[in-house]
Amino acid sequence: MVGDQIAIFPASGKLGGSLVKYALKTIPAHQVILVARHSSKLDNYRDAGAIIRTADYDAPETLQHAFSEARTLFLISYANFEHEHRSKVHQYAIDCARRSGVKHIFYTSLAFGAGGNSSVAHVMQAHLDTERYLAKISSEDPSFSYTCIREGLYSESFPIYTASFNLTNPSSEVCIPHDGQAPGIAWAKIDELGEASASILSSFYSKPSEFGYKNRIVVLSGPREWSLAETVQALGRAIGKEVKIREVSVEEYIAQPQVELRLTIKGTNMGKEWATAFEAIRNGEAGVVTPDLKEILGREPEDFETTIRKMVSI
Fold first, then answer.
1. How many degrees, rounded to 5, is the angle at CA 126 between CA 120 and CA 127?
2. Does residue 292 sit within a domain?
3. H-helix segments, 80-227
4. Is 129 inside a domain boundary?
5. pTM
6. pLDDT along the chain (314 residues), means of 10
7. Structural domain of residue 180, as residue ranges?
8. How far apart are CA 13 and CA 36, in angstroms?
9. Of the four, 24, 71, 193, 194, which is 20 to 30 A from 297 by CA?
10. Is 294 a domain residue?
11. What CA dihedral angle connects 241, 244, 249 and 254, to 10 degrees?
């Protein structure tokens, strides 16, 4: 009914696009408000009956009424790893949603932290801030609840952990501030994370009183942990070339042109901040394997090497 819809923001992008695709298989389109910076990308869902709105994390005024008439918000995190700005825009979006009458927020966090409430990874800090903010609101307002979904590290995001390794123009060495040995990463495929997240959202929509993830953090991981050495070997097998890790200092790592290019955010080289992810991996933060993704999908999740081989064959 009107006034009881589910808002999804941002509803485009890789994870958002997958989430919407699967969510609308079980949730009627007229019950869904899709919000995105480039809302024209969602026109096909408008034709199906969804409400389409335009909003942007970096244009706060657009968020003030973006979630009106929704009672549930699926909030996908801001798409870069700046800590303070990212935390600020997340909290502003949450505040706007609550003022609009939203009573439950799903938030896509990240699977660093080994399932706990701390991390040495800079990329995880805004996620932890947002998780704590939602928990604080819930503790102060019994009518409000939340679910934080720590999405597994995307299989398709391997370049940011392998010095921008390029499958079509590969090097024989991956120079990173890590020796490649375990612990590693429990890689997960983006589309399967979107499918599982949509299933969680749908279960809340259909039976909110029986929902098992209220005021909880759920970790969606891939089926096994891959050390960075195993990750690089799998990349090599997929392209038919031997590839090895060479451990370098943080300074050498961030001085590589392809790394500097990828990790320069709004004119600032954030390579040192990103390099903390390798320390987190070394500490076992990204290698936690949980059964949740498999149980929600009802099948074994696709393994990392299969995903990579499919990328190569496209």
1. 85
2. no
3. 83-99, 122-140, 190-206
4. yes
5. 0.96
6. 81 96 97 96 94 97 97 96 96 98 98 93 98 98 98 98 97 97 98 98 95 97 98 98 97 96 90 97 97 98 98 88
7. 156-184+223-287+302-313
8. 9
9. 71
10. no
11. 20
